[in-house]
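Researcher: Quick one. two chains, 226 residues in total.
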Amino acid sequence: DIQMTQSPSSLSASVGDRVTITCRASQNIRDSLNWYHQKPGKAPNLLIYAASSLQSGVPSRISGSGSGTDFTLTISSLQPEDFGTYYCQQTYSPWVSFGGGTNVEIK
Amino acid sequence: QVQLVESGGGAVQPGRSLRLSCAASGFTFRSYGMHWVRQAPGKGLEWVALISDNGSNKYYAGSVKGRFTISRDNVRNTLDLQMNSLRAEDTATYFCATSYGGLDAFDIWGQGTMVTVSS
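Model:
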């Protein structure tokens, strides 16, 4: 199985800050990496697919990069609505797996 | 609109069974692979199972293999998860999800149904 490791597990940042979350795969997954945002009590919301493609309706301050085993999600200017938990996910294998999550708190 | 609605959750004792359902609407259900994902209280997302569009291929997480069975009815547009030999660690909110936009990512999710396994 492909293991996904996210870091940090949590962070606290101010509105306007640049925030970076990393995700590492245990093997080469090419660009089969997606990012989700989840708020408490809600289903996850797709942000980025195929490592760097922005899902329709997602603000352009959010971006993704990387390929192979190392990936990054960047929020260029953190907004109040960006609080919540972010997850990476690999779909390279039919046995899909998620990272452990990064909880983002607004200072 | 494109929608997934889960049902069937509830409280059950360890060792018992429960069957979850996911009703799909607004899209050609038979053309899409379908997934179950779960989330234990206060924990992260865990992928559970995948069934191909025609139901011929099924994949399971190691934690549920041999106990859970994913199935689908492409006439009734429903996805099911039969959960047997339930354990306390199966307590979670269960979501169904699919890659509707062909993005190889889960762009459509249901609202989730809660399963509590406790004596």
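Chain A is about 0% helix and 50% strand.
Researcher: Thanks, that's what I needed.
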